[in-house]
Description:
By secondary structure, this protein is an all-beta fold. It has no helices and ten strands. The protein is globular.
Amino acid sequence: VHLVESGGGLVQPGGSLRISCAASGFTFESYFMYWYRQASGKEREFVASISGNGAYTSYTNSVKGRFAISRDNAKNTVYLQMNSLEPEDTAVYYCTEKKSWGQGTQVTVSS
């Protein structure tokens, strides 16, 4: 299993960013996929999940209405669209199918 996150960066408060996770080494469409994040000095926390066919999604309360998880099974890729970003969203974002983890992509929200 190989998971590679990309698309992180520096964005101003209120801005938007879309991060991606390219997956390989398993039957992607058969698995729920998850985004987690870890801020400096804090524990890793759940952000969002999506079912294999994309029909079911779930979010932690702090990002509901601002973030949207999606997937493209033809590209073996899962996305996280992040809108109305807040400084509290600053963290390293990871994707996972619960057995393996990518290296993460840094998202920094700052003016």
